[in-house]
Structures are given as structure tokens and as C-alpha cells.
Amino acid sequence: MVNQLTSADTESDLSQFADEKAGWNGYVEWEKYPKKKALATKILNTKKFTPIPEFQFVPLPDTNPILIGHRWKEYHEALGLKSIVDFSWKTVLEEKPDLLHVLDFPYNGETTHEQLLLGKLTDNKYHFVRNHGGIPNIKEDVFELEIGGLVHKSVKLSLAELKDPAKFPQVEVTVTLQCSGTRRIEQINQYPGDGDELINAPWGEGAIGTAVYRGVPLKKVLKLACGGIMPQCKHLEFIGADTYFKKNNVYNYAVSVPWRKVRNNEEVLLAWEMNGQPLPKSHGAPLRVVVAGYIGARSCKWVYRINALAEPSMGPVQAQEYLYYTSQIGKQNTMYSNGFSIQQMPVSSAIISPVDRQVIVHDGKITLKGWGYSGGGNWVERVEVSPDGGSVWYAVDQDDMTEKHYHAWRLWKIDVPVDAEGWLEFCVRSWDSSNNTEPTFVRSAWNWDLHVTSSCHRIKIYSVNRTRPATIKRLKELEARGEEFEPLSHPLEYRLEETDAYLTAMRKHPREPRC
Fold it and tell me: Where is the Oxidoreductase molybdopterin-binding domain (predicted)?
């Protein structure tokens, strides 16, 4: 940040941005105080902030964290909220030390390939994180949830009340949460797009994870605590305790889902437990929303207020972001109104093992592993893998897929017959219970905001087939000399063929016509 806050007047202004409540560290209420929001905007407009880094037209840094959120940190610091930045990173190091740190602040952490394949449920310490602001530290015993708007009775509920089974029925639901930016790097590598103020993180295949969440269906809370909703209510808005910025304006994180989604009993959950453990801070403790089958952005973390509305939320995350544009929309003509809101996740899949550009020495079969997922209550029925870029497909045996769930992925593995050698392009596609499948190529799915890379995931593998005589001979030569086949691009350190063998071959099949 170029200039710092020094005047006594400004220091006095910053005192207005203190924590809202005792025991709610890192939470500043913005939506109830228009004058406070206006003051924050005034301060931000006097500053010049670090531009977002260029990461689409240049190689990504070979570091962990990959990208540094200078701009977002400076926004917080300009308003005297640096403690939120510090606490957030401290929490990441405690809860998520082994993730791939795609962006340090606000924290975006990706599950590695090895961690993804450990089992149907993703261990809490390995589950990906996509945050839009800092991580608040809210004590459970002082937490309360406000519900208002178009309900028959506005209420405030403590966490103890929400957890009381005598008041609200509890459920456990297995849910896959997926960021709409999963596999974004494939779009970036071919057709760069919007970088966004909050960096559109260059996610790979690991911005997805599955957990068992325990909580109470929102539908039940609205009915039992609020006496139901009014007829005008068509949407439920969720407000989170983290601070969000857009065009030098400041907000509390806000998103919404249609009432018809909430009405489907267990598809919108107020959750306090994840995989049998208290919800981690980085995942929204003490209470979060879990919206099964929708993009992860709708599953609001640190939720403290729910509003019943006649129309969708006007919060920028709902109204101005997570929009899907046509391929001819870009920097030259983008409007918030010419994209549609991304809610339900489409069917998608990924090859997790082997990895792109890997050399595989095999005996006529190559083992592939990965995941397949579909949102909106659909489930993956079939996964198919092609070893030739999409002409011939092999179906994964049902015995080699994890069980079906209404709202969760299926992990899979398959031994694909491969005779050919050299560079091969493998791809995968899933079919869901509504007979939906994936676009064939990235170009078919490209959009300016680089969301929902649901095209067939592709990797290139260098095939070395040990069943072929010439290959067997070469591998034995290397073994006898104590040399490795890889790195692939390194030349062999000995003659490829003796002179006598070369002359015999050339005389039998000369390179020039005999006459």
C-alpha cells in the first residue's frame, strides 16, 4: 500500500471499525450501519493499493503459497483490521499446514492429489478451503443466529438452542462441496480471462472435498422457531461474519439460495460438526450453511444472520460475481446483468493419478484413478476413460467406484488397456442420473470469469509398453548399466545401435530407392 494512515482524525475514524461484540473477534458489522460503510469507502478511496499479480500470461510461481493477497491485506490494514489478517494465517498454519496454499489471504487452499485419494471422506485437515475474507474467531458460548425478514416471527437463537434435539431435529448428511473454480487452471492455460479483485485462484483438480456434516435443516428452524415464512418469501439470504470488499466498498459476505432449495428438507443445513468433529475455524466455526449440490460459495461460513427475502441477495458475491457468461462476453462488454447466476453444479470429473506429463512404464495396462461428481441431487452413474483423446471409451466397473450418494462424489479407478507407445492423451467423462455428461473440450466451457470447468479432464501421458520386444531390450540395457529411463528428455549416454546392426538394417531396407 502506497500511503499509510497518519492523521489523528483518521485514527479516530478507525475506532468505528472495532469488533462488533465481545467474543466475536474479527467480526465487524457493516450491513446495519450505512454511515460506517460510507466512511470505510471514503478511507479506501484515499489509498492506492497493490495491483493484483499477473498469473495468467506468465508461469505460476513455484512457491507455497503460490500467490500473495497483497491487495486484500492492504484493504484490511487501511481500516485497522490487520489483526484479522494475522489470525487468519495463524489458523491456516494450525489447521491446514499440508494443503497447497494457492492464495494466502483470503485463504484459498487446495487438496493435493495424494490427499484426494485417501478415501471417500476427506479428512478435515485435507479438505480444501475457499475463503472470501479473513477468518473470524467467534466463541461458541456467545454466538447467536438472527433470523428475520419475511418470516412470521423474527428470532435470535444461541448455538446451544440450535443443538438441542428437543427443539430441532438433527441430521447427518454426506456432502461434496466444490468450488466453481475447480480446474480453472485448464481455462487459464488455454484462454485467460478475468483476474478479479479477489484473485480468481488458479485451482487445479483439488478444490473439492467430501464430508459428513451434522446440523439441523434450515427448513425446520424456519418452521419451528419462526412460524414459517410469509408467502412473499422466495429467497433466503445468508450473512457471514467475514468482511468483503468490492470496488472500494465494504460488506459482510452475503449470498442467497431460492426457497425451493431450502424446502427440500436436508439440502440446506445449518452445520456445526464436520466428520464427527467440531467445525474447524477455517470452515466456518461455530456455524456454517451447507447447501448440498450448489457451488461452494453458497455454503456461507460464520453465518450469523439469515434474511427471508422476496428477491435474491444484492450482496456482490450473489449479484455481481459467480456469473456465467457466453464466450463472446469479456472485458470489452461485461455487465453484471448479462451473465446468469451459477447455483447448481454440473456433472464433472477429473483424473487424479497419474498426473499430466507423467512417464508410465507398463505391461499393456495403465491404472487411472479420480473423482466424478454432479450437483443438484444428481449422482454419478457412470465414469468413462479414453486413452486416445475421446474416440474410444472404457467404462469404470461399478465395483471400482465408491458408493452412490445424493449429494456426494464417487471415487473411481480403472485399468485401461494400452498398446500404443509415446505421448497419449487420456480423458475422462462422467454421466449422471439425469443422463447429463460433460463438454468434450475446454473451449466449449470457457467463460470470462473462468468458472465451472466441466469439460472432459485431459492429461498427457508418455507410454512405455514393456510387452514390446524393442522396449524390453532397451529397458534391460538401462538396467544392466545402472541407468534410469527418466528424465525422459535426457539423451542416453551410449550408442543406440552398433554399426553392424545399423548396416544390416540399412542394406535390407535402404533409405534411397534401389533403382
Answer: 132-315
